[in-house]
Specification:
Alpha-Beta Plaits, two-stranded antiparallel sheet, 14 helices, about 75% helix, rod-shaped
């Protein structure tokens, strides 16, 4: 039973160490041979299970089950070797003669072992089980293990040769595969000498640990660094996009929202009106008095300063409302929330300030406001037209005040 316990421990350790490889498919792109390595790990499971069962059947004296289990054991061993060769081929990514040879040997090895297991029923050339359930190895078993030793020796030599041509991380990975193959080769040789010890299972466990520690973890760390770099690039691009969008929606002179932003706002409010999602808002249209005179007599630089001063003045009263510059001297504010609730008093204070400015010769702005009526107003433009009409009435009123 100690034999079986050792194998069970090996299974558990391999599963724990390679949990991320065997169950998580999110890292499929960590390196090209990832899928082949996962197949190899899955291929080891039947081998481990038959090896564990072998120890149990042998301890219980179950002759027939022991024989059948040993047959499956050899086939599972051959399949695991074949899957290992597939992984090595994919990992090396070398389309040369070596890959063709390794692929042929690995596939042929499985076929030959299956044939030997059939022949072994009549002629126990690989193994036989004595009446006392003792395992008796045959010459065929040594041939099978020798072929495996040859496969691992061939893999080791080739990967060490390739490691000389590479550098850095790639060289380290090639050396790991080479060392891995040497470990397997040595322990398979020991298995020939000690047939009733679980040496081969321990060898598989050691080798998967080597690959996981020195290859997979390396690849994942590199991938993680690459992803972090990509995330930084994406973050920078996102900030640049936000900045570009802000510039595209912002008036370059005053810093308030521009005509493009105003059009999007109008469409959004129309959608909300259509969906009956908005019932309260007011529109105020502002127009500067005397901008043309400033431009003509003092120059456009003074005219720009005049516009900026007017914009700051509007925002000092309508602090919580988005302001849009929709023309050279025309602004629109959308009142919601507190500004909407206090719209009457705010507009009155604003108009009083404009009348004072009219007397002192400071910036004068005509303002007209209209409140959305969800019963009669069908869209935003209707409210805007009403506010615009009131603005012109106020403009005419201010003009008359200035003439008196």
């Amino acid at each position: 039973m100690m034999y079986t316990q050792i194998i069970i421990i090996a299974i558990l350790i391999q599963f724990i160490i390679n949990f991320d490889v065997m169950l998580k498919r999110s890292d499929e792109d960590v390196f090209p041979a990832h899928g082949y390595y996962r197949n190899f790990l899955y291929g080891l499971i039947p081998y481990y299970l038959t090896d564990a069962a072998w120890g149990y059947f042998e301890s219980k004296g179950l002759l027939d089950l022991l024989y059948f289990d040993t047959v499956i054991y050899f086939i599972a061993m051959a399949v695991s070797v074949f899957l290992w060769t597939k992984f090595v081929i994919a990992f090396l990514n070398d389309t040369g003669v070596f890959n063709l040879i390794l692929k042929f040997i690995g596939f042929t090895f499985v076929i030959v072992v299956c044939i030997l297991m059939l022949v072994n029923v009549k002629d126990p050339m690989v193994f036989k089980v004595g009446e006392g359930c003792e395992y008796i190895p045959g010459h065929g078993r040594f041939i099978i293990l020798l072929v495996q030793t040859f496969i691992f020796a061939l893999t080791s030599m080739h990967t060490f040769v390739l490691s000389v041509r590479t550098s850095g991380r790639s060289r380290r990975h090639h050396i790991t595969i080479g060392v891995n193959s040497i470990v397997m080769m040595v322990l398979v040789a020991l298995q020939m000498v000690y047939p009733v010890y679980p040496i081969y299972s321990v060898a598989c466990l050691l080798c998967t640990c080597l690959v996981h520690t020195f290859v997979l973890e390396d690849e994942k760390n590199d991938r993680r660094k690459e992803l972090e770099k990509l995330f930084k690039i994406e973050d920078t691009q996102a900030k640049e996009l936000i900045s570009a969008k802000r510039r595209a929606y912002t008036d370059s002179l005053t810093g308030v929202k521009n005509k493009h932003s105003y059009i999007e706002m109008e469409n959004d409010i129309n959608d909300r009106i259509g969906g009956q999602l908005i019932k309260e808002f007011a529109v105020i249209v502002f127009d500067l008095n005397g901008l043309k005179k400033v431009n003509d007599t003092m120059g456009h630089e003074k005219g720009d300063a005049f516009i900026i001063s007017a914009c700051d003045l509007i925002q000092s009263y309508f602090k919580n409302s988005p302001l849009y510059r929709i023309g050279g001297d025309e602004f629109v504010a959308i009142l919601e929330g507190d500004d909407y609730n206090l719209r009457g008093s705010i507009l009155r204070q604003f108009n009083e300030k404009m009348e004072e400015n009219l007397k002192t010769g400071e910036v004068v702005i005509a303002a007209g406001m209209d409140v959305f009526d969800f019963v009669h107003d069908v869209d935003f433009h209707t409210v805007f037209e009403h506010a615009d009409k009131k603005m012109y009435e106020r403009k005419k009123e201010l003009k008359e005040m200035g003439m008196n």
